User: What shape does this take?
Amino acid sequence: MTMDQSVMRSPLGPSWTPGHHGTVATGDDGSAEAGIRALHTPGLLVVEIAALPGKGEAMRAAVKKGLKLDLGDDSLAASLPNAVCSGPDRYLLTGFDLAAVKAAVGDLGLAVDQSSGRVRLSIDGADVPGLLAKSCPLDLAKWPVGMSQASHFLHIGCTWYRRSETGFDLYIGRSFARSAAEWLIESAAEFGIEILVPNA
Assistant: This one.
């Protein structure tokens, strides 16, 4: 689920345009191939929830019942594609309406709409490890799929989530999104980067 695009402007700036950027390799069939693929989902609904002190286990049980999301045991390795653990008893939920989340959480925690405050960039491809080595102090290549952690993308605070063997989601503050997008394109140029069109 996404929010109304009529009230949103792209936070990524004019350099974030669909297509190939940087070095472009050619496949056996003559088509362009990029070592990294990147996607931004505009208007994504993001709700951050945080349990009140001592209510973490109860909140996770309530979310499982109300939203059908199993948040596991509060470990960073128990994150889901649409429920990323961003700290102790804290999660970023994507694709859920704020009212539905508040109804599920009840008085066990807080639920705040972050749709206009957070941006998710998704990257994938064989050359992602080389890109991450430049940009993150953590050794993300050793993470299990499904793990998340708050860290940095360059100097920008963010939350990382490992979506697949070669895929990561990056949640950053909207005010830093343009800087992150410009650096991503520049740093990935040596590998070749393809910016994808959402829902294409």
Observations:
- Residues 11 and 175 are 7 Å apart (CA to CA).
- The longest strand covers residues 118-124.
- Confidence is low (pLDDT under 50) at residues 3-8.
